[in-house]
Structure formats: structure tokens, C-alpha cells
Amino acid sequence: GTMIIEQIVPHGYAFAQVSVMGTGRSNHCMDLMGTAEQLGVDAAVTWLGSQNWSNGNVGMIGKSYDGSTPWQAAMFGNEHLTTIVPISGLIGVMELMWRNGSSEARAPIMHNGVYGSYGIDGDLEDSGNMCPDYIAGPATGGAAWAWGGEAAGNYWGERYFLDRVLENYNGSVYLIQGMHDWNVDPHMAVPTINRLYDNGIEAKGLFGQWDHDYPDRPQIMFDRSGVGRGIEAFPEMVRMDWMQDLLEWFTYYLREEGPQPWLGVEIQSNQGQWRFEERYPMTETTELILELGTADLASTGGGNIIRPDASSGPVYETPPLEEDLYFGGLPRLHVNVNTANVGGQIYALLEDCDGANCIHIGHAIMDLRYHAGGDDEQTWTPVFEEITALMEFFPMDVEVPAGHTIKLTLRSTGEDYLPSSASTIVTVVDAGSTLQLDTFDPDTREYYETVMCTAQICQDNLD
């Protein structure tokens, strides 16, 4: 809150820090992002908006957990809530740690084992801080890993916010997301921003190549960046103009003064360039389709068998590119497979390679029980029936130079994902399997220079 107190409050704003129920000085029990917490957040908005010193307009801002509470508040359509600024916030709790039925290693315990500890301080009142769902949470997490979804009840459904926001919210959204966020993956923001636009909600996105952070923290950004994980976009990723931008946003939506801010997406490529897009994933693109096992994306090793060992599986690579390639949004991998049993999992790694030197540009994960995408578990006849895994990569924005190649590696798991609870041998069928990239001509885009970061760490890393 220091940045708000020092840089926003002096311009005529009141600022409140609110503890969710069961934490800090708030009473009741700790209902991790559940109904009780949601109602408490809404009550806080109503109280702030109805005070005699208030003009009735309330905004909410926060990062991570605190960036999820604005989404909770927006579900209610509260007349006082005129804008929210989620920074790496959650549109849903299950969406944080599960993807197409696949579970992150932290997923079975994170939502209560870590977040739930906020309601525990070691005194005799701790037992009163536990709502019934606090007890149910860990079991629900384990069940979600075993079955890939909501096995029973509505624990996860209660904690999914976005649909109710789209239905009820009448304010604006300034959505901020790190494209290399390891904690809250960028699929929380993309394609969420387009769903906001499609439902008539005024919104702006600021998507840079940092990880789980604010846009203007140069030393932390540098420390948390690595090869293929944002360092190529440093120091251009540092947005020293962000607080000015935020002040102008609040001036318009809270004070109802000044010009309306530009509504669109500021997106940074993995090589550091910033540009404007009206939406993201962007429009006016050309789909590049590369079929696995052909000259466009040749098999270079590993055979066609993905064993549940996280280390075996096929590898494909393009010829050296004849010209620079620009693509982004949500690339897709539609891969035909046979499985030994009903189950299996595919992790897909996409890399930019200059000879033997490769950097990560994106990845995808899918439990094959959810091979159609979405939340519906599928059935098929193993061995005899071929299925198509409709995989979608996490959001990315990529520049691959001419002369480089694009490499695709398939494994049973990767990153921080657990092996599937239904692990089995998967055979990839190259014929008809495709990698799909949404490419664009940079000459059709509007690029811009950002305010120079003068911190020493930025100056030391100028090109």
C-alpha cells in the first residue's frame, strides 16, 4: 500500500486496507475466497462508498491474493464499485493451479495449507477461524488431482468469479499481468481481457514480460528473470510511468474528472518491444499451421512414444526461418494420440533455437481425460480408438529471428506439474497433428518507447 499512500492519496483520495474475514483484525472464520469472504469484501465496498466523506465511488487494487478480492467484489454489481485493478489476481481458485485437468505440484495443498495459514496465529481462537470449507479444502484439492476436476459438491464453482463479474459488474477494469508469472499464470488475464470487451466492460490491459510483480520494480524484476524467462525483455519491461497511468485511471473513474484513458492492451514481446493492441489475443493475424512429422516441423528424435517418466517423447523442429517470425496470443497444438489406458498426460514445450542454444518461449499441459478442452471429462476405447488432444499454450508474445528454428518437445509432464493420476503410455500419431501459430506483420502494428528506467540495475543492462 505504500505506493498508493505516497503517490495517489495526496491527489485527493482516501485509502483503506481491509483484511478478509478470519485474518488480521477481521472477525468470522477463514473462508478461503468462498462465499463468506466474498460477502465481506462486498460489505467493505458498501461501507466505504456510503461514508459522508466519500463521493460514492470505490476502486479496488491489489496483487496476487489481494488482486483476487477485486474480482470477488465485482461479482455483486455493487453500485459503489466503479473500477478494479487486479494485478496477477485470480478469476477462480481452481484455475490458479489446474489446467485442462492437469495439476501443479502445489495444487492439492496450496489453497488451505498456505493461504489458510493466514487465519492461524497460534492462540486459542484459531479453531473459530475455520469455516466448514476450510476443513473440506484439502480433501477437495486431493480429489481434483485424482479426477482432474470437481469430484463432488461446489467448492470450486463457488470460488470461480469471472462469469458472475461478466453478468453483474458495471464498472471498469485495469488488468495487469506478468507474461512470465510463475505463480498466477497469464491465462488469468488472457483471454479474460477479451471477454470483458465482449461483455461491454471498459477495460485496459498492461501485459509485460515480468513475473509475479508490480510493473515498476526494476531490481526485483531483474532478480526474478532468467534466460527465456523474461531477461531478454529487461530493462524495457520496467514501467516507470505506471503510477502516473494509474493516477489518470483513478482520476477518470473515481473522481470523474479528466479525459477517459485509452482502452486497449499494451503488450510486450519476449524480446522487449512494446506495442498497442485493441484486444489480446489480437486481431488481424494469419494462422500458420505446421504439421508434425512433415518438412515444416520434422521429427528430430525421441520416437513417437510418451512414457510416464517425464523424460521420453518425440521432438520436432522447423527448418531455419527465412525471415523474422512474430506471433502471440494462445498458440494451439492439436495432437492425435492412442493411449494404453483411459488417461495419460502431455506436456508441450516450445523453444526458440539458435543452433544448440534454445530458450523457452511457451508451454502447454493437458490431462488426456480432458482432451476436448474445458471441464468435461471424456471417455474413449484405449488402444483401438484415436483421440485428438486440443491443447492450448499459455499466453505468449514472441519474436523469433530469421535463421533460428522453433523446437517442439512432448513429454508426460514438465515445469511444476504433477504426473497424471491416470498416467499411461501415449503414442503420438503425426499425421494430421498440427501446431498452430497466430502470426502478424510488425509493420501493421504501432510500437512505442517507454519511459527510461534510470535505476542502476537498468543502466547496467542496457543493450
Q: Briefly, what is this?
A:
The chain is of the alpha+beta class.
How would you characterize the overall build of this protein?
By secondary structure, the chain is of the alpha+beta class. The chain has two domains: 2-277, Rossmann fold, CATH 3.40.50; 286-439, Sandwich (Jelly Rolls). The chain is built from twelve helices and 21 strands. The chain has helices spanning 2-7, 35-49, 65-74, 93-97, 107-114, 132-147, 155-158, 162-168, 192-198, 218-224, 242-253, 456-459; strands at 58-63, 81-87, 98-99, 102-103, 172-178, 203-208, 265-268, 274-277, 286-291, 298-301, 305-306, 315-317, 325-329, 332-339, 345-354, 357-367, 387-392, 396-400, 405-411, 426-439, 446-448. The strands form five sheets. Strands 1-2-5-6-7-8-21 form a seven-stranded mixed beta sheet, with helices on both faces. Strands 9, 11, 14, 17 and 20 form a five-stranded antiparallel beta sheet that branches. The longest helix is centred in the N-terminal third of the chain and has 16 residues, at 132-147. The relative contact order is 0.13.
